[in-house]
Amino acid sequence: QVQLVESGGGLVQAGGSLSLSCAASERTFSILTMGWFRQAAGKERDFVAAIRWSVRSTWYADSVKGRFTISRDNAKNTVYLQMNNLKPEDTAVYYCAAAFSDRYGLGRARDYDYWGQGTQVTVSS
User: Fold this and answer.
1) CA neighbor of 50 nearest in space, from 15, 11, 79, 84
2) Residue 53 DSSP class
3) Strands 119-124 and 10-13
């Protein structure tokens, strides 16, 4: 079973930055896409960013484009989310996810197959 563990969340003031990490217990050829989702209190789980594992193609939600950057480190089996210019509306639990599909633009929670436990990001004003 693939396990995903997020880290790096915390409290930050608006305009600040945080970097999230997601470490996978193992890499298999069946895992083709890694992504980040977030879920605010009382809200649905929304797509944030994703990256194809074998190719450096990425895609982002419009709300974070230009502020967030997703990246990967194959040697460490880790995906990162660099979050800059954070806004209060970015406050949420951030989840790392992995999918068997490599379809570009994959952005539905139902399309992902493995999930981490989440890490809280709180942005104060």
Assistant:
1) 79
2) S
3) parallel
The one-letter code for the residue type at 113 is: D
Below-70 pLDDT ranges, the chain: 27-29
Q: What is the pLDDT of residue 9?
A: 96
Residue type, 43: K
CB-based contact 42:103 (threshold 8 Å): no
Residues 6+ apart with CB under 8 A from 17: 82, 83, 84, 85, 86
Rounded CA-CA distance 79/23 in Å is: 7
Whole-number Å distance between alpha carbons of 71 and 80: 5
Nearest to 32 by CA among 119, 114, 110: 114
